[in-house]
Automatic annotation (TrEMBL):
InterPro entries referenced in this protein's UniProt entry, alphabetically: DUF4143
Name of the protein described by the UniProt record: DUF4143 domain-containing protein
Domain DUF4143 residues, every copy: 2-117
Length: 169
């Protein structure tokens, strides 16, 4: 694109100010691991993403490579819109691939959230390792289904409605 880093940064800040994108900052305290330190950028309006990509219906969306990122952005926007004041949020990722899509701190809670667009969710070893790194008190996997149930490692699989109904959020 032949743009300098300061120019790109100012464009990203403008898009954030216009509420078109959201930057989720990385958490990178010293836990003895090499962590990713660049923010993740999500377009806040998934409908806008779909329109720009000429995705006309659900079949088009389900077969499109943007599905996973669009789902994550949609879930993150919904969760963050419900958080009380004083809540902080980040994502966590190590260079070895251990990752938490969203983690939230509020009062004494450290909430780890993995987001998967699937009807049969499974937690990854990287998610569990990351939860240990950040000392998560609560662990959730938000998926495309409607039930809430344990899936191992003290993690609950929950729907979007289920995660929004949890009192800690």
């Amino acid at each position: 694109m032949d743009l300098s880093s300061p120019t790109i940064k100012s464009y990203i800040e403008l898009l954030e100010d216009l509420l078109l994108i959201r930057s989720v900052r990385p958490w990178h305290r010293n836990v003895g691991k090499r962590n990713v330190k660049s923010p993740k950028i999500y377009i806040r309006d998934s409908g806008l993403v779909h329109a720009l990509l000429n995705i006309g219906d659900m079949d088009d969306l389900l077969n499109h490579p943007i599905l996973g990122m669009s789902w994550k952005g949609f879930i993150i926007e919904n969760i963050l819109s419900e958080l009380p004041k004083g809540t902080e949020y980040w994502y966590y990722r190590t260079f070895s691939g251990a990752e938490i899509d969203l983690f939230i701190t509020y009062k004494t809670k450290v909430i780890a959230i993995e987001i998967k667009k699937t009807l049969s969710p499974k937690i990854s070893k990287g998610f569990l390792i990351s939860c240990e790194d950040i000392m998560a008190t609560d662990k959730y996997l938000v998926y495309g289904g409607s039930e809430t149930y344990p899936i191992g490692g003290e993690t609950l699989a929950v729907s979007l409605q289920g995660i929004l109904a949890i009192n800690e959020l």
